[in-house]
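Table 4 source record.
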Amino acid sequence: MKKLSIVFFLFALITPVVLGSAKPSGADAAMNAFWDKFKAAVIKGDKEAVFALSALPIEMEYGMPRIRTKAQFMTYYKHIFAGEANAAKCFKTAKAELDSSNKKLFTVGCGFAEDSTPADQPLVYTFKLTRAGWRFVGYDNINE
């Protein structure tokens, strides 16, 4: 009976790892919690919450100035989240991708708003792990 208990205990420990359902590490959990909060704010259209989850300066796509102030952020909000992309729609199903070469960055890609079934995702939102936690730090159209 004791051997059976040990085998059962070991099986219970190993099964989540083998099946790929192990809980994420602390960094992944923090990243996922941030992403859930950020996308909820964008989907809701809560500009103040989105700004609070951002870090200045925000790098912008080619031809656009860096965003250095809250006033600039509010001015460019629509361009970033409802211009070429429909971020509210995209973020509902988009997956955060941790940068394999820099674990302090992750990105989320979106297709163009007018594409009903976007094949690629050239509109990239970049997030960085800062002293204050994860923050939105960039928007780029990688086709430009």
